[in-house]
Amino acid sequence: MAETKEVQRPLSPHLQIYRPQLTSITSILTRITGNALIVAALLIVWWLLAASTSGAYFAVADAVMTSWFGDLVLTLSLWAVWYHYLAGLRHFYWDAGKGLDMETAEKLGWACIIGSVVLTVITLLLV
User: With respect to CATH, is domain 22-126 assigned 1.10.3210.10?
Assistant: First the structure.
């Protein structure tokens, strides 16, 4: 029988030593905002269903939606909508085969982050 020899291979980089790049952070953030928007949509649907059920139940749902927690969730949801929208535009640009070099990809990542914050503030000021 042939002898098996254990090969010493280097370990993969772990999260403790790996420095995430902006493109990976924005990719993860796109997924997080997409899932968070589903949760926010369920909260809004709950509020609308409560409005159609009874006055007492609507009072409870409305108290949650108009509390500091509801304001925080809706404001973050507004930011998530803008971020998700801008990230989608960035992906359309990438799908066209443009902006795939690292310098442009990082600029587009910063544009998504900063642009979403600016558009959220503008929307809040207009509403």
Answer: no
